[in-house]
Design a protein that fits this description.
single chain; mainly alpha; 89% helix; 0% strand
């Protein structure tokens, strides 16, 4: 009778342990899958950020100074154009807007909150109030 009771207790314990092991294995597999998907998302976010940096540093943005400043300086002497600093700021604002738009698009495609937050920070201009005060 004691042997049958011990056998029943051992069998119950073994079944409970097996259930725990199955649950733990499933949890680990789920976490590994989640980790892999997050790793892929981070790689795509890094790629999007690199693309944004490439846009900012591209010759289409960098070359504006060499291309337009000599002509603008001559126009400035005639008094017919805005200040060069304002023109440079406008080019910077355009590039900043392009980067923010690209990051926002990629964040929606990837479902990335990190890229979305970065797009918001890029689109916000910390000197907007100062510039407005200078213009006024």
């Amino acid at each position: 009778a004691d042997a049958l009771g011990d056998l029943e207790d051992t069998t119950t314990t073994r079944d409970a342990d097996q259930k725990y092991l199955d649950d733990l294995t499933a949890t680990c597999e789920q976490k590994a899958t989640d980790f892999e998907s997050r790793q892929q998302l981070r790689a795509e976010e890094i790629e999007a950020i690199e693309k944004a940096i490439e846009i900012i540093s591209s010759s289409s943005v960098k070359g504006h100074a060499e291309t337009y400043l000599p002509a603008l300086a001559q126009q400035q002497l005639a008094g017919s154009s805005p200040a060069l600093a304002m023109l440079r700021a406008d080019a910077h604002d355009q590039a900043q807007a392009r980067v923010a738009q690209y990051l926002n698009k990629r964040s929606k495609e990837l479902g990335s909150r990190v890229l979305s937050a970065l797009a918001v920070r890029v689109s916000d201009d910390p000197f907007r109030k100062v510039k407005k005060m200078i213009k006024d």
